[in-house]
Specification:
335 residues; alpha+beta; Nuclear Transport Factor 2, Chain: A; 3 domains; five-stranded antiparallel β-sheet; Conjugal transfer protein
Length: 335
């Protein structure tokens, strides 16, 4: 049996082996095989061993089937409903600005102009001429979420009257705005009350900056020689701005150019204590923050004061513009 399983064998070899054991005879018709007594005994032994093998392997195969059976599919969890679009204070701020403008301009009989913002406006008693006052330059100066989907919006508005009295006076109005989903899947807003006039937001003390005192921008100062042509190219379009930029700096001139001329008046330099001009440009790779005060001449000939916070870097014996900073650099907090 081992020999038969260990190597391939042909039909002729099988016939010879069977003949040596008194084995296999051809049928008279030449079709099929008839087995001798010895062959039948061998076959019975093989079948008997296979049967015992199945009996012994049965429990193992059954256990393997249990272990590998896929888990029964449970109920599919219900999918959470899609919620309303995310809402926030940006829409509430714009809604409050429009509501304040409508309230300032409202007069006798204008209740219907306010009900789209505040449904309770039908019961208001309005006085004065419609449009007798107007609100301009509206801007949100404070925005906070007071309760759930309710936002408290403080709007600054410059209120003027038709007769000119009180022109240019800034008022502050606080508006409670509720935010929620609409039937069409969008976001809706409603005022919970009429605006309340409030005091101006308090002014804080300005934080300290890293720059020293202001000093004149002298023509021979290497810092002036760096910032003056760079800002002139940036604001007026005169000259090639890239000539004054450090490698890797990205700054493009304003287009169209808003000014026709530029003068650099003052500099405040990072780390300076007495405002004295530096004698020479240090070695390559030194970074320095500079606050620049300029006057730019508009197309109408009026000179406008502007300030720029710049970071400069040394290369090849000169200062170059590394970046136009978003804000002046604050001094580190004292311990």
């Amino acid at each position: 049996m081992k020999r038969l399983l260990g190597r391939p064998w042909s039909a002729a070899a099988a016939e010879r082996g069977a003949a040596e054991q008194g084995g296999v005879d051809r049928g008279e018709a030449g079709g099929g095989w008839s087995w001798s007594t010895g062959a039948s005994a061998n076959t019975a032994a093989v079948l008997r061993r296979a049967l015992w093998g199945l009996v012994l392997l049965g429990p193992l195969l059954g256990g393997a089937a249990l272990l590998t059976r896929p888990a029964a599919a449970g109920p599919v969890p219900a999918q959470a409903p899609v919620g309303a679009p995310a809402t926030g204070g940006q829409g509430a701020a714009g809604f409050a600005e429009q509501f304040v403008a409508a309230c300032v301009a409202a007069g006798d009989g204008d209740q219907a102009k306010l009900t789209p913002y505040f449904p309770g406006a039908d019961d208001l008693r309005l006085e004065g001429a419609s449009g007798g006052r107007s609100a301009d330059q509206l801007v949100v100066v404070r925005l906070r979420q007071s309760d759930g989907d309710v936002w408290s919006v403080t709007v600054a508005a410059r209120v003027s009257t038709a007769g000119g009295a009180g022109a240019g006076v800034v008022h502050y109005f606080q508006v409670p705005v509720a935010v929620g989903p609409t039937g069409g899947g969008g976001t809706g807003y409603v005022a919970l009350a009429m605006p309340a006039e409030v005091a101006a937001p308090p002014r804080i003390q300005a934080p300290g900056l890293v720059y020293g005192p202001w000093r004149p921008a002298l023509p021979g100062d290497p810092l002036t020689q760096a910032v003056s042509p760079a800002l002139s190219a940036y604001l007026t379009g005169s000259g090639d701005l890239s000539r004054y930029l450090a490698p890797g700096a990205r700054l493009a001139p304003i287009s169209p150019a808003p000014y026709t001329a530029l003068s650099v008046d003052q500099l405040a330099v990072e780390g300076e204590q007495d405002g004295a001009q530096a004698a020479a440009v240090p070695g390559d790779g030194i970074r320095l923050g500079v606050l620049v005060q300029v006057r730019a001449t508009g197309t109408d000939g009026v000179r406008v004061p502007l300030s720029y916070a710049l970071t400069l870097r040394t290369r090849a014996g000169r200062w170059e513009i590394s970046s136009l900073d978003g804000a002046p650099a604050q001094a580190p907090a004292s311990s």
